[in-house]
Amino acid sequence: MADVLEKSVPTEESLIEKIAEKIHDHDSSSSSESEHEKPDSPSALKAKIYRLFGREKPVHKVLGGGLPADVFLWRDKKLSAAVLGVATAIWVLFELVEYHFLSLVCHILIFALAVLFLLSNAHAFMKKSPPKIPEIHIKEEHFLLIASALRNELNQAFVILRSIALGRDLKKFLMVVFGLWIISVVGNWFNFLTLVYICFVVLHTVPMLYEKHEDKVDPVAEKTLKELKKHYMVFDEKVLSKIPVASLKAKLG
């Protein structure tokens, strides 16, 4: 009888352990399900907010990342200010002072060569070591990478222009014509150098301001784009849909 009781005790203990394990598994599964049913975290909700131009990446990555993005977003204020100052000095020299580019390059080279020549020959009298002038070699790979990137961009532009010229996309045709017209109007206001300088200043100010106030700008941009889409739908219904594009394509085909 004692043996039977001794055998029943461990069996009962094993049954209790199995029941406890099942209860523990059930609790863990229910807790995991409850975690899945929890509302999205603030970061997830923030990711679902509309962003300008439908972007999903931060502004720093949109600008290409690295040092150029740091300069445009003023991550290094001294470097950004120096770059903007140099660009402003160049614009003042060429536009306001009316200094010519070729003259500037020649004067800089004359000054640099004269200083290096004097230092190289006067080191014996000054009892100093001659200046160390590094050897500069431009690698062929850099030119090939730039040429390849430029070729890809030009080919893509030619594909878009060809599709527009064939009359396949009326919306894209109107957008390109409107964009070229805007550029021609702005070109009448400024010369090329001033226009480049204005674009440079815009790149140094607008992305930085947008990154600081993107939570305020994006809702306004969303409303504006919705209104523009409504106006475009009305214009498409009343004007664009009545243009016999299909018949023109059939004749051209």
UniProtKB/TrEMBL annotation:
One of its GO terms (cellular component) is endoplasmic reticulum membrane. Residues 23-43 are annotated as: Disordered. InterPro entries: Reticulon, Reticulon-like. It is found in: Endoplasmic reticulum membrane. The chain crosses the membrane at residues 79-94, 100-119, 173-203. PROSITE patterns: RETICULON. One of its GO terms (biological process) is negative regulation of defense response to virus. It is a multi-pass membrane protein. This is Reticulon-like protein. It comes from Eutrema salsugineum (Saltwater cress).
